[in-house]
Design goal:
The chain is α/β, with parallel strands linked by helices. It has a nine-stranded mixed beta sheet with strand order 2-1-11-10-12-13-14-15-16, sandwiched between helices. The protein is globular and about 70 Å long.
């Protein structure tokens, strides 16, 4: 079995049921009475607040995409890129690519033109879908990516250098393409690492990895046909898509929301009767702050059906979850740990019944093994800090065209060494300490930034924080805390230093910087960017209003 079999099963069993909904709150903001908006305005939904497709239409669209690609000469094993914002066309295109035997290659929508050019070459992309948001970037590199045989534009007003996918697909057969044999051992997709530790690497996965991620998600969060999943993060990333795979395996509805404001999220949960919501830390923080300020009133929304809030992609401050549970006591909570190299979330997860262990990333996920090792890859004793390694059916095949990098993280027994430092408690729960490359060594002592960040986030005026190492002639490195205050709040360096006296002296930040904390689309702090900004520069401590 492969993923496309699940889509075809859903089309047969639940053909008329809603599979996907797209919500565009920017349009709603222009005219708050959303019911007055047409559901089908423009060939790609331009001008629509809400669009939806059923499972049968989803499968038909995937078939039309597959038949178009085959007509254009795509072959099994070739690579087809997807450069789209979240939209109703995204997943049918993804599944259409898989149905041909080609590999789907999602691209980060934040990539600049040179990064798109680099990734197209690295992954050997043969055909590429792109949306209207990327016309300027594609114009810039169109002459440099001659290996790409076909450029398909997904939207209205197709540029001259591309073909209009919407029109072409409409004229293709909606029947499943014949004669394409695929198994779980065939290659299925290339994903790119998030780039928080350097330029992206291309990660090669087989169909078995994708199918296992669906099984993991459904096993962890118990999706049924009655659930409704609210998906906000970008679909190019393994996290969002693999969480949606729980909806695929259960045949349930999912909502793609183009917006992250607290009111936008709560309106979507209320209107679409969402039961499961995956949030990033900043979005959860914003919702709680908006409630505290009175900007939103929970009584204005239908939220009783919301049963699960889960967070992934980054360490979760325990103080945040304590605040969340105080306001939403009936919510189940889970956190998920994973990497694109382990096909996204779920190789470690907290588990729905383990809220007393909030702060841990959890226990081995469904079908996964874990171990914590020292620098020689020997297992460390419980309680000791070491590198987390994972093993299971979702581990990547390799870094595409990078044998050296593959050997650095993947051994002959199938263990993937994550680069994350962790420790295990007496009950077998894993706590993430920090990225191996982010550990700060100051005067011979190892400092783990995540521990300091978790402490600082408990300060009532702090919205977000990142701790990085800065060069120091005497100590080698010192810890600097980049602090983003809550909206409308102000604070001083002296007040933060006083607060930090609760920490052991060696863990107290030596420098305080009040500034915005940059995060990538999956919520990870962009520490390489912060180090680039602040390392080697003369730091001026400031008192600002955030």
């Amino acid at each position: 079995m492969i993923l496309t079999d699940l889509l075809e099963r859903n089309a047969e069993l639940y053909g008329n049921d809603t599979a996907l909904v797209e919500l565009n709150p920017d349009i709603l903001e222009k005219k708050r009475n959303w019911k007055e908006y047409s559901l089908v305005e423009g060939t790609s939904g331009a001008g629509c607040y809400r669009r939806e497709i059923s499972w049968s239409v989803f499968d038909e669209k995937a078939n039309r995409c597959a038949n178009l690609l085959l007509k254009k000469g795509v072959k099994k094993g070739e690579k087809v890129g997807i450069l789209l914002m979240n939209c109703l066309e995204w997943l049918p295109i993804y599944f259409g690519i898989l149905k041909t035997g080609a590999l789907a290659v999602p691209l980060n929508f934040r990539y600049a033109a040179d990064e798109i050019r680099y990734c197209v070459g690295l992954a050997d992309i043969d055909m590429l879908f792109f949306g209207p948001e990327f016309i300027t970037r594609m114009e810039e590199i169109e002459g440099d990516i001659s290996r790409v045989r076909e450029l398909f534009f997904v939207g209205d007003n197709c540029p001259a250098f591309a073909e209009n996918y919407i029109h072409l697909a409409a004229n293709q057969s909606s029947r499943k393409p014949q004669g394409i044999e695929l198994t779980e051992e065939d290659f299925a997709a290339v994903y790119f690492s998030s780039g928080t530790t350097g330029f992206p690497k291309a990660i090669l996965h087989k169909h078995r990895s994708l199918l296992h991620s669906a099984r993991v998600e459904q096993n962890h969060h118990k999706q049924t046909k009655d659930d409704v999943f609210l998906c906000i993060p970008p679909l190019y990333h393994t996290g969002a898509k693999m969480h949606w795979f729980g909806s695929l395996i259960s045949g349930s509805k999912a909502v793609l929301l183009k917006g992250t404001k607290p009111r936008t999220i709560l309106e979507a949960v209320s209107q679409e009767e969402c039961t499961i919501v995956w949030l990033l830390v900043p979005w959860a923080q914003d919702i709680l702050d908006a409630i505290d300020r009175g900007d939103v009133k929970l009584s204005d929304y239908k939220l009783d059906q919301w049963r699960l809030m889960h967070i992934g992609a980054q360490p979760v401050p325990p103080s945040l979850i304590r605040r969340w549970k105080a306001i939403f006591p009936h919510h189940d909570y889970d956190t998920n740990y994973g990497l694109s190299e382990s096909i996204g979330p779920g190789c470690v997860h907290l588990g729905l019944g383990n809220t007393e262990k909030v702060g841990a990333i959890g226990i081995p996920g469904y079908g996964w093994e874990i171990k914590i090792v020292d620098e020689h890859r020997n297992i460390v004793a419980k309680g000791e800090v070491g590198e987390l390694a994972v093993k299971g059916p979702g581990v990547m095949t390799c870094y595409y065209k990078d044998e050296k990098a593959t050997k650095e993280v993947l051994d002959e027994e199938g263990w993937l060494y994550t680069g994350d430092m962790a420790q295990e408690d007496e009950d077998g729960f894993i706590y993430l300490v920090d990225r191996k490359k982010d550990v700060i060594i100051t005067g011979g002592e190892n400092l783990y930034p995540v521990q300091i960040e978790d402490f600082l986030r408990s300060h009532p005026l702090i919205k977000d924080v990142a701790v990085i190492g800065l060069p120091d002639k005497r100590l080698g490195e010192i810890a600097a805390a980049v602090i983003e205050l809550k909206d409308g709040e102000s604070c001083t360096e002296e007040a933060i230093n006083e607060f930090c006296k609760a920490l052991p002296r060696y863990k107290r930040p030596a420098k305080i910087i009040f500034a915005k904390v940059p995060r990538n689309p999956t919520g990870k702090i962009e520490k390489p960017l912060l180090r680039k900004i602040y390392c080697g520069e003369s730091l001026v401590k400031t008192q600002i209003n955030s």
